[in-house]
Amino acid sequence: MDISFIFTMHEGLPRQGPGSNECTKKAFFMLQNLPDRPEILDIGCGAGMQTIELAGICPNCHITAVDIHQPYLDDLDRKASAAGVGERITTVRASMDDLPFADAAFDVLWAESSIFIVGFEEGLRLWKRLLRPGGYLCLSEAVWFTDRPSPEAVAFWNDCYPAIRSVEETGAKAGHAGYEVVATFPLPGSVWWDHYYTPLLERLPALKVAAAGDPDAEALVAFSEREIAMHREHGSEYGYEFFILRSR
After folding, report:
1. Mean pLDDT across the stretch 106-135?
2. Total number of domains constituting the chain
């Protein structure tokens, strides 16, 4: 399937996945003993709401923000300049499974709603080399919030991300990959709607028109409708957990 239309679907949205500035801030303030001028790599940054928030709460940091879709990076550059933090954010177009940076180049890796693209275990493995000793990997990952999810929710996640596990199982995978689990916390249900599903719903009618006649694009729009309906009905069964991990 040609998935290029998925970028078009999400251009201009405040976020390209569930999250909030409050959750970004909460996670960042769990980090301890950072250097005076930390180097942060935001992986799969999208339009960069969390990037700009990080730059605001850590005024001495430098952030390298990476995404594969240049329009997202252009959007981030504009917003960062308007927020007065553009000089401390460098955007780089690159794939998260082939990051063009030296080993041990960063104190913090940040990945909100993005590691699923390469897979949780693969992301942990690929990115670990980028961290300095004792550096942090902060990420949000889809998890089950119940040990008895409904058949409908299981079928949905088997179609889109069968690697989803419980918080405990996900943390154990991080431990096996050489990270200490410093802390975790669940993202509230509102983060799915405020800056993500609600603005996406508003543009779905126009997206249906744009997708007409393109089977791949039509399938992506239909999947988004299914995803939103699934969360409306079964969102209490799953969600995102923020993991603050430290390299061992």
Report:
1. 97
2. 1
